[in-house]
Write a structure and sequence with these properties.
heterodimer; A: Porin; 16-stranded antiparallel β-barrel; 2% helix; B: mainly alpha; 2 helices; 39% helix; flat
């Protein structure tokens, strides 16, 4: 993101500014309403493939606005449009497009959030809607954050509900539904003048239709419960005026597709208001208990859950990203980011990755422009 | 996932959290904490896009918040 003008001497100015309400942007640990608005535009270009076969392409713009409505009330909203085309696996690495019938779809997602700030707590209420040709999801959520008098510790509580409706274009099923309830408890602690840590525990309880109607023999359990424990740690490094960001997530899934995720970022301010941020991410995942190795149909039992979806196999995945951002005059900033992602069975921690699957790769490029007002 | 691997990774995460000294700052000492790079999600759109990609290509997602809703990608 944006480079700061501050090197050494700017700290005092920022420290003084902190005494003013709204200096912090509306992030997970903001404790006062923003006093500046933000408008952001982003364009996204995504492509994935397996050896000798292209898979999906996704392109689309997105918009974000943050507007302070009063000294204690803010409004946020985002709009995302994705145009998708290509082929996805019917089972293992056999693609839907192999028959000449590729996939074309779009996704329009919009969300809005109101946050009211009080002296020692803030309440946020949000709504989200995501629609595709064959899928509609509507969600509501509420979060409450409360902090200590010195604002060094914040507790967060969240609850959300989503109702999804599934109507696949192949007509295999009609009017299927799914409901998901989510709960969050989080703590954010300022450790010292240059370090902050956040730990969130979320629980997701879903019921309804989980089968993938476009995949062969796919039959999944009608409930899914997921625990996710995410801990993030940001450390300012004065010697380089840089920031080290670290994240770890442990995910426990009632389908047994448990995973560990590690992510490390280094945000390095450069001359001319540039910031360069390289990121490395690693995930290692177990297979779902009803995922069966090839050939298709092996292990299938009538009335029992079964999938040949490679996303529910055991694998390791690595992402390398690079983001270059520049702060411009008049409250403008821009950034360009590129990421490459690869999944391999053999990269699973401790071995035992699912056999018989091809390597999966993806790359995406993003261009963003932001204006504060 | 083997239990041993799980315990090692959790221990590593806790150890990294314990690397920093615990000395909560006074308000006038929070200049570095206010920098955009020190925020957990400095760019909401980039964070949304990233989570959407991984949710659609991996077994499960979550941990970053509540109420985002689902999609037909998974």
């Amino acid at each position: 993101m944006a480079a700061t003008e501050d090197r050494r001497g700017g700290s005092a100015l920022l420290a003084a500014a902190l005494a003013l309400p709204g200096i912090l942007p509306a992030t997970a640990h903001a404790q006062t309403a923003p006093d500046q608005g933000v408008f952001a535009f982003r364009y996204f270009d995504y492509r994935d493939w397996q050896p000798e076969a292209e898979r999906m392409t996704v392109r689309g713009p997105s918009l974000y606005v943050l507007a302070p409505l009063s000294d204690s009330l803010s409004f946020e909203s985002s709009l995302v449009y994705d145009a998708m085309s290509g082929a996805s696996p019917l089972y293992y690495n056999t693609l839907s497009g192999a028959s000449g019938l590729g996939i074309t779809d779009y996704r329009t997602a919009v969300d809005a959030k109101l946050t009211k700030y009080y002296d020692r707590f803030a309440i946020g209420v949000s709504a989200a809607n995501s629609s595709e040709r064959d899928y509609l999801s509507r969600a509501l959520s509420m979060d409450v954050r409360t902090w200590t008098a010195d604002k060094n510790r914040t507790f967060a509580f969240g609850v959300g509900a989503a109702k999804d409706s599934i109507n696949p274009v192949n007509g295999s099923v009609e009017g299927k539904r799914r409901e998901t309830y989510e709960y969050l408890f989080g703590v954010t602690q300022v450790l010292n003048a240059g370090a902050i840590v956040q730990s969130n525990l979320t629980y997701s309880d879903g019921r309804g239709y989980y089968d993938d109607p476009y995949k062969s023999f796919d039959r999944r359990p009608s409930t899914r419960r997921v625990w996710a424990w995410l801990t993030r740690y940001n450390q300012h490094v004065p010697r380089f005026d840089a920031t080290l960001r670290f994240a770890y997530r442990y995910l426990h899934d009632s389908w047994s597709a448990d995973s560990h995720l590690l992510e490390v970022e280094w945000a390095q301010p450069l001359p001319q208001q540039f910031t360069l941020t390289p990121t490395l991410r690693y995930i290692t995942q177990d297979h779902a208990y009803f995922y069966h190795d090839p050939p298709l149909g092996s292990g299938f039992r009538i009335g029992q859950p079964y999938t040949a979806d490679p996303r529910l196999s055991a694998f390791g995945g690595i992402t390398a990203s690079l983001r270059l951002a520049r702060q411009l005059a008049g409250g403008w900033s821009a950034d360009l980011a590129a990421s490459i992602y690869r999944q391999r069975s053999s990269w699973r921690l401790g071995g035992d990755g699912s056999p018989g699957l091809l390597e999966f790769s993806a790359r995406w490029v993003e261009l963003g422009v932001q204006k504060t007002f | 996932m083997r239990r041993r691997d799980t315990l090692v990774l959790i221990a590593l995460a806790l150890a990294c959290g314990g690397c920093a000294s615990f000395d909560p700052p006074q308000p006038w000492e929070k200049g570095d904490l206010a920098k955009p790079d020190m925020q957990f999600d400095p760019d909401p759109l980039a964070a949304k896009a990233k989570q959407h990609i991984y949710q659609s290509k991996e077994g499960a997602g979550g941990g970053y918040g509540v109420g985002g809703g689902g999609c037909g990608c998974n």
